[in-house]
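Render this sequence as a predicted structure.
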Amino acid sequence: MDLGAVLADLRSSDRPRLVLWPEREAAPASVALLAGSFDPVTNAHLELARAAAAHAELVVLMYSVRTLPKDPGAAGPLLSEPERIRVLAAVCDGRPGLAVGLCSHGLLADHVAAAEERFPTARITVVLGSDKLAQLFDPRWYDDPDAALGALFAAADVRYAVRAGEDVDAALAAAARLGHADRVEPLDVDTITAAMSSRTVREGVRSGRDVGGLVPEEALGAVLAAARREAG
């Protein structure tokens, strides 16, 4: 099945599903899920993956075919969906223990449910930055926050990297109120590196700045080509 058919199939799914791309046999004892728009994948993503690999046999870079809404007024994407996935596949191909995961749904709770089905015997960890940790406990994302978060923490631990300038106290307090404090732990990632974002790369390359130090080499060509395309 080609990539377009896989994406269409996932978009039509009414339940959370996870497909590795390219698909392969994998039955790891432990899996870490690292979600992002990957527009483009950055060195911060890889640093989080490196830190997560200390706790998981397989780190899956999770791309959702149904993305969550962006901030109003945000600029459009730099890389197309197929470009993002191709770059991710190239990044993972040269790094044992990394894989691309395509997920039918966008919420982290959905990612965990899909991973439970795909890796039924694996211990699951969700890996995220401190900004996403705050979103995880924001009740506005859920029809039933207690049920959604209860299911997530019944199946997975959460490890977070603190981004420079961000405070995790409110999120940790929310975890404690819900009885999940013991399932949430920090990752050993430099705060400046963790703060590096795909948005920073997009804004930088669109402004003509050098972004070579912000993305893995497998991504740089696609990023520069996309910027030239936009510039006409």
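Summary. The longest strand covers residues 58-64. The chain has one domain: 3-198.
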